[in-house]
Amino acid sequence: VRTVQVELGERSYDVVVGAGAVGALGDLLPAGARRAAVVTQEGIGFDVDPDLETNTTSIPDGEAGKTMATVEELCRTWSRWGLTRNDVVIGVGGGVVTDVAGFAASVYHRGAAVVHVPTTLLGMVDAAIGGKTGVNLPEGKNLVGAFWQPSGVVCDLDALATLPPRELRSGHGELAKYHFLSDDDLDSMDLEERVAAAVTIKADVVASDERESSLPAHDGPQRGRAILNYGHTLAHALETSGDHELRHGEAVAVGLIYAALLARRLGRIDDGRVDEHRTVVGGYDLPQAPPPGADADALVALMARDKKAIDGLTFVLDGPDGVEVVHDVPEAEVRAALAELLAGKLVRP
Ligand SMILES: NC(=O)c1ccc[n+]([C@@H]2O[C@H](COP(=O)([O-])OP(=O)(O)OC[C@H]3O[C@@H](n4cnc5c(N)ncnc54)[C@H](O)[C@@H]3O)[C@@H](O)[C@H]2O)c1
Ligand SMILES: [Zn+2]
């Protein structure tokens, strides 16, 4: 078991990673908390024992449960039970649970402490770290939310034992992304080290840009929170356009290959680096191309609308200085790289 610190001044907190890490839960709870409101889902079955008076609520599964109605239901339940703002909320589940539990905690009594216990790989390396919380509206995903840092995070690898294989693959897509966001050799690491490395990378980015303020508003290299969206521009387009055949991390895997092909077209990386992308993504047994029937025109239109694209086509791309935000990418290159991807073409030296 190892500990990674997220350095955010008075909002700093520990992320404890490893098999059996849940044993450290008690150390992460705020002093003075007398009650713990656990939020989870049916079927997760990962038990926590905060050693406080505890009330457990199960929220509905999937994006459909990530709503304002669920937040209201939680807050009403906590209020009837007598949870105070000095107590603690504990989210035990995947990103859906920790996003909802975190957001509900952020508004309950104008802000109660929350501790996250992510039980999916994606939650451990991404959703539970960094303080973004939120819910969906019928008009779109994650449209209502808050930055609300947890008091601590427990990534207990034992929780992954019951995770469906598809969900594990989805987490692998995000893990693959982290291989390209630092100089550390994630390939050589075991799972505990690798999850801790991913958490460290995300923690460093969040520490430098807690509220994603360095949006691409000016020219020049940028390594703010936006780099966490590496591989995500095409991934979001695939998720929006597709028949939801791909889990998020699988779409990210395809997006990573695409970003590498695009970066090569722009002369930012060489063939060897493209191969590295294929090796990492392939090593996780993830897809390297979109499902058959993908519509290139529709994908380009969606990428142009991606929320990271503020002035024309903006991408997060690898290059000589590492992964950074790149503006004004010519649409012709965007199309050509997509054609390469759809053709499954592997141009080698
Ligand atoms: N806040 C952030 O920074 C951030 C970042 C990335 C993603 N997210 C959000 O995270 C969500 C996706 O999270 P996810 O991929 O973890 O999906 P999820 O939370 O929907 O979990 C996937 C499924 O696995 C089940 N499950 C979870 N843990 C289990 C376990 N240990 N054993 C058996 N089943 C288990 C869940 O009940 C669910 O059915 C999205 O809503 C996304 O918007 C947030
Ligand atoms: Zn993602």
- Which structural class matches the secondary elements? alpha/beta
Q: What value does the Rg take, in angstroms?
A: 20 Å
* Number of helical segments with 4 or more residues: 11
Strand content: 15-25%
Note down, in words, how this protein is organized:
The chain has about 350 residues and is an alpha/beta fold. Helices cover about 40% and strands about 15% of the residues. The protein contains 11 helices and 11 strands. It has helices at about 25-30, 70-80, 95-105, 120-125, 165-180, 190-210, 230-240, 250-265, 270-285, 295-305, 330-345, and strands at about 1-5, 15-20, 35-40, 55-60, 90-95, 115-120, 130-135, 140-145, 150-155, 315, 325. The strands form 3 sheets. Strands 1-2-9-6-5-3-4 form a 7-stranded mixed β-sheet, with helices on one face. A two-stranded antiparallel ribbon has the order 7-8. Strands 10-11 form a two-stranded antiparallel sheet. A hairpin with a 6-residue loop joins strand 10 and strand 11 (about 325). Helix 4 (about 120-125) packs parallel to helix 6, helix 7 (about 230-240) crosses helix 8 and helix 7 crosses helix 10. The protein starts with a strand and ends in a 6-residue tail after the last helix. Mean pLDDT is about 95; it is low at about 215-220. The chain binds nicotinamide-adenine-dinucleotide (NAD) and zinc ion (ZN). The site of zinc ion has 5 residues, from helix 8.
